[in-house]
Write a structure and sequence with these properties.
The protein folds into 2 domains: 177 residues, Cyclophilin (Beta Barrel); 161 residues, Cyclophilin. The protein contains 7 helices and 20 strands. The chain is elongated and about 75 Å long. By secondary structure, the protein is α+β, with helices and mostly antiparallel strands.
């Protein structure tokens, strides 16, 4: 359980904030926070917490967040900001006590998961929210239902994460001033089209996927006529950069080499990338698992495949109708052979085999 405030005194509003704006008037709004570490975009949840959203918009429009700090950080936990006192370095001893007591608790079903934005409270007083807020860098299930979640990070969770990791003292006070330079409200723009969402099997099959590794490139022919949703998933993830900076983490000579496991990425996924990682229903087909075939890995449940794939090194009929084959190596088998021959510890390469990117190559005009 995270404790967010150690109060020395309260700068409370004289009464609770009220608004005449309806959820319809507040709906489809975003807050853009230009911070010292980069931009964070918040989707404001008017249906879940209309009064909190209206208060936040009013404060942003007043310029109240400009120059405020994230005055408390918990590494990979939360960042806390929005205290109007934090614009004044001489008030540092009081950071965390300002701008409270303006909002009544608004219960809703929003959970304190990664990217949730919630109102800070005086300990023991649910009806004490105000301008201060915290952003969850990772899931905080102990906080579910305890704080009013009124927004979610649409873009920039990695910016918030970076700020959570700055050097800080034992109380979580950052050693450097990290915070909001300028905040604005805007209408939510139309969603960015999802890559390949409407592509036909024929259109997808005319693309190639090039797995660029630290040992060379491997070009894949895509079998969208046999496994269209698996091909669509690979193209979507590749186009979004999900595979960038991952590794070929498994080498089983005479059997498979495997990559695409997101736990091997050097950097975490951003919000858009994360939204594209989805479980796939199996698309078993007559394609035999023979040398050079690309197939999708899964757990005990055949419908648990997401991003991890393998390239078959020798005929493996035991995999037929158990895993979905959806591609075939057409260039770079010599690279596959070099990877098959690397020293391993068990089935883990002794030296990391980097996947720089999976590049989508459109058909020639």
């Amino acid at each position: 359980m995270l404790v967010f405030l150690m109060l020395l005194g309260l700068a409370q509003a004289p009464g609770f904030f009220t608004t005449t704006l309806t959820p319809e008037e507040l709906r489809e709004k975003q807050a853009v926070l230009e911070t010292t570490a980069g931009t964070i975009v918040l989707d404001l949840l008017a249906d879940a917490a209309p009064t909190h959203v209206a208060h936040f918009i009013a404060r942003v429009n007043e310029g109240a967040y400009d120059g405020t700090l994230f005055h408390r950080v918990i590494p990979m936990g939360i960042i806390q900001g929005g205290d109007p006192l934090s614009t004044d370095p001489s008030q540092q001893a009081l950071y965390g006590t300002g701008g409270l007591g303006a909002l009544e608790f608004e219960p809703n079903d929003e959970r304190a998961t990664r990217g949730a934005v919630a109102a800070v409270l005086v300990p023991g007083d649910r009806d004490s929210g105000g301008s201060q807020f915290f952003i969850c860098i990772t899931d905080q299930p102990a906080l579910d239902g305890e704080y009013t979640v009124f927004a979610r990070v649409r873009e920039g969770i990695l910016v918030a994460q970076e700020m959570s990791l700055v050097a800080a003292d034992a109380d979580g006070t950052p050693a450097e001033r990290v915070g909001i330079l300028h905040a604005t409200i805007r209408d939510t723009p139309p969603p960015e089209p999802e890559p390949f969402v409407d592509a036909t099997a024929d259109e997808m099959s005319r693309h190639r996927a090039v797995i660029e590794t630290s040992m060379g490139d491997i070009t894949i022919e895509l079998l969208a006529d046999r496994a269209p949703e698996h091909v669509r998933a690979l193209l979507r993830l590749a186009a979004a950069g999900v595979y960038d900076g991952s590794a070929l983490h498994r080498v089983a000579p005479g059997f498979v080499i495997q990559g695409g496991f997101l736990g091997t990425r050097r950097d975490p996924l951003d919000e858009r990338q994360f939204s594209y990682v989805r479980e796939l229903q199996p698309e078993f087909n007559p394609t035999p698992h023979e040398r050079g075939i690309l197939s999708m890995a899964h757990g005990d449940d055949p419908a648990s495949a997401t991003s991890s794939f393998f390239i078959v090194l020798a005929p493996a009929p035991a995999l037929d109708n158990q895993y979905t084959a959806f591609g075939r190596v057409v260039e770079g088998m010599e690279v596959v052979e070099q990877i098959e021959a690397v020293p391993v510890n068990g089935e883990e390469p002794v030296t990391r085999i980097e996947v720089t990117t999976i590049r989508v190559v459109p058909p020639a005009p």
